[in-house]
Amino acid sequence: MSNRQIDALIVGAGFSGLYMLHKLRELGFTAHVVEAADDVGGTWYWNRYPGARCDIESFEYSYSFDEELQQEWEWSERYATQPEILRYLQHVAERFDLRRDIAFETRVASAHWDEDTKRWKVKTENGDSFEARYFITGVGCLSSFNSPDIPGLENFAGEVYSTGQWPHEGVDFTGKKVAVIGTGSSAIQSTPIIAEQADHLTIFQRTPNYVVPAQNHPTDKEFVGKLKQKYGEFREAQRASLLGAARVLLQTPKMVLSIPEDEFQEEMEQRWAMGGLVGFMASHLDSGTDRDANERIADFVRAKIRDRVEDPDTAELLTPRSYPIATKRLCVDIGYYEIFNRDNVELVDLNAAPIEAIEANCVRTNRQSYEVDALVLATGFDAMTGTLNRIDIRGLGGEKLKDKWADGPHTHLGLMSVGFPNMFMITGPQSPSVGSNMVVSIEQHVDWIADLLVHMRENGKEVFEPLVESEKEWGEHIDILFNMSLHPQADTWYLGSNVPGKPRVFTVYIGGVHAYRNLSDEIAEKGYPGFAIDGEGKPNDVDFEDHVMRLMPEELQAA
Ligand code: FAD
Ligand code: N01
User: Fold this and answer.
1) Which ligand 1 atom is nearest residue 124's CA?
2) Which of 438, 441, 444, 445 to mutate to test the pocket of ligand 1 (most atoms within 8 A of CB)?
3) DSSP string, 490-539
4) What residue ranges define each of the domains in the chain, with the CATH number in brackets?
5) pLDDT 10s digits, 183-218
6) What pTM was estimated for this model as a whole?
7) What spacing in Å lies between the alpha carbon of 348 and ligand 2's midpoint?
């Protein structure tokens, strides 16, 4: 039991918490991390299912804050596997001697703002407590597993695995009848490997996904060698990009519907051959705002499904039609569709035959029972707000964050919430987060918070909080961007639609990594308008929409 007095208490030892700790220590603050797992890694600690790897090229999906680190680390593949990313984060922890300030196997249970001392009182489930000037969460957008509410799940007598909490020793499915529930990225990455091992694999699908190929390969050493000669410039380009990824594979500043058919097909084939989600997520000017334009791209991907899956009925079941492409992070595959050409793989459409119950040795739909030895839940996460809401966070007047957010998150910049002074959320809801290369967005948040803390220290200030008006304005800005986009036409975890009872509220800032950085920088440069420092603040005078419009190509503005 301890009661430590520190400047900052950080929750989580993933990409966010590790960098935040390093940055604050460098600046002379006392900081401590509390992490539920027994080691660093976050996402890459927990998600050890077979096939797990990143969807942004590794030389982009990595820290930029230390030149020596980025020069010395060698990725073995274009998209590194989970073990390699975990090794990288362990290397970072060792290189910067971070573990000595991390309490592992410790879960933060509560954080209460004390108005008298102007400090956060943080308690862990182990009974430790901290008093910290700043409470900084790096708890992850995708870190609370969404266990499905299927009748009888607890009666299943075989093995049950969740992709988001995979056993460290791995699982051998050889000779087993396996069922996978869910067809999101985690299933799309794991099922090709499970299909090779299992005697039989049944995949239960509720909503088909758009999937593009990774075209993974061993690292192109010549390319990366050249890139490392100007890594700094490349990192700047990432920060100045829409998605936080700078290796734009094809530059096509065109409106989709203006491209002649033969030219369109040729260009899309090139994108397909290059692989990866970046070339499809932001492929054309209007693909995210005009449904007809979006359909043209979706149709290209749909045709690819028909090419890859031999049985036309199965191909049709796997084809998404009800929602626009890229309204959820695109899935990237290595051999997913091809598994449906195997004799030992079966696809069950839950829309035609919903699961009625899970029994001791089978999954029973309203049409048929499927005998199963092992059940894999690839059912996603209570994303964006889920992990924050699991902590008893109380701000001014004892208000609970969870209560304040009962109808969805309310934040300023996705970074702070009114009534919760000196609390910061790295990649919080309503920030670019999951709509971007997250390492770039994490570094931006960490740097902004660190600069602010220095500003507070240099000016002898204690309490920092957004103004009510700025939070309202930010919420309206999020809504404007949402309504300009095709996101309202999809039911995704971005909107909480995957968790029964969650309010349908859009939780991602989609104005671009570049626009977000620019407006955040302007706020800092102007001395933090829109926030109160020790109770005094000027209203926000930063024009959020203007930042987005300035970076929007003219053709799109006109449209
Ligand atoms: P996390 O890595 O989620 O770490 C949060 C940590 O906080 C966890 O270790 C958790 O145990 C801890 N924690 C939470 N609550 C508490 C508590 N109360 N007390 C103590 N500890 C707590 N993004 C990309 O940009 N590109 C990708 O390729 C990519 N691939 C992904 C693949 C998978 C399988 C998943 C699930 C996500 C992926 N993401 C990807 C998103 C990924 O989550 C982020 O890129 C990034 O790793 C998040 O880092 P983080 O430190 O913010 O959060
Ligand atoms: O989760 P998901 P995920 N009965 O929510 C289904 C990142 N990530 O872990 O779509 C039956 O996408 C659910 O159906 P529906 C990435 O950002 C990246 O796969 O809600 N089915 C869906 O099919 C990603 O977007 C990588 O209708 C149920 C599936 O389960 C995010 O994490 C890899 C159900 C869940 O899919 C989440 O991905 C992995 C129920 N009761 C993750 N409940 C990379 O490739 C849910 N489903 C880098």
Assistant:
1) 19
2) 438
3) ---GGGTTTSTT------B--S-HHHHHHHHHHHHHTT-TTEEETTB-PP
4) 3-144+383-558 (3.50.50.60), 185-377 (no CATH)
5) 999 999 999 999 999 999 999 999 999 999 999 999
6) 0.98
7) 16
